[in-house]
Design a protein that fits this description.
218 residues, alpha/beta, TIM Barrel, 8-stranded parallel sheet, 9 helices, 8 strands, 35% helix, globular, binds D-xylitol-5-phosphate, binds zinc ion
């Protein structure tokens, strides 16, 4: 048994009300907020960037933890602006850089935590050499770009392997995670749970968040 944190992804919320949606998620018991940044290059979709994050930070106050999921082609470009905007963790994709070491250093210099993400097609062995230098590994359970996709169960061996090798590493799953799929994530050893549409589309997000967390500590 271990405790897990639940981070709603606001991608599938009403983006015209992003600020109040963030506040609502925190009020419903979210442990942190997973903010999906897409630039139209790394993924075929565009969301928002650091100016919006700065406004969200002002809106929600200093406490909520912002996990920035950077689905961008040039992750080195946004480290400083995101830190200045109030981001707490900078989660970049291994596929988007050929100098992960430098990027990690820069994120730390900007006083953010470091998350390292891999797409479904990237093997976990490529991530492993960096584990000693990062705070969190993100194993994508869908192809990044859109909310509401089907959970890829065949990603679970990556999580199981990471958990067996690195017992105290924070491991996040993202994509298609909800009440129907959380058991698989929990069994594999994920402890940071992103869930978008399953929470956002629910009439009772508080219960969904509590349910997801409950499965992880069973
Ligand atoms: C997908 C994003 C996810 C997504 C999760 O590219 O990284 O964070 O919004 O949404 P659901 O839970 O609906 O798959
Ligand atoms: Zn995400």
């Amino acid at each position: 048994a271990y405790s897990a944190k639940i981070g709603p992804s606001i991608l599938n919320s009403d983006l015209a009300c992003l600020g109040s949606e963030c506040v609502r998620m925190m009020d419903c018991g979210a442990d942190y907020l997973h903010l999906d940044v897409m630039d139209g290059h790394f993924v075929p979709n565009i969301t928002f960037g650091h100016p919006v994050v700065e406004c969200l930070r002002k809106r929600v106050g200093p406490d909520p933890f912002f996990d920035m999921h950077m689905m961008v082609a040039k992750p080195e470009q946004w480290v400083q602006p995101m830190a200045a905007a109030g981001a707490n963790q900078y989660t970049f994709h291994l596929e988007a850089t050929n100098n992960a070491g430098n990027l990690i250093k820069e994120i730390r210099q900007n006083c953010m935590k470091v998350g390292l993400a891999i797409k479904p097609g990237t093997s976990v062995e490529e991530l492993a050499p960096w584990v000693g230098q990062i705070d969190m590994a993100l194993v994508m359970t869908v192809e990044p770009g859109f909310g509401g996709q089907k959970f890829m169960e065949d990603m679970m061996p990556k999580v199981t392997w990471l958990r067996s090798q690195f017992p105290s590493l924070d491991i996040e799953v993202d994509g298609g995670v909800g009440p129907d799929t959380i058991h698989k994530c929990a069994d594999a050893g994920a402890n940071m749970i992103v869930s978008g549409s399953a929470i956002m589309k629910s009439e009772d997000p508080r219960s969904v968040i509590a349910l997801l967390r409950g499965v992880c500590v069973e």
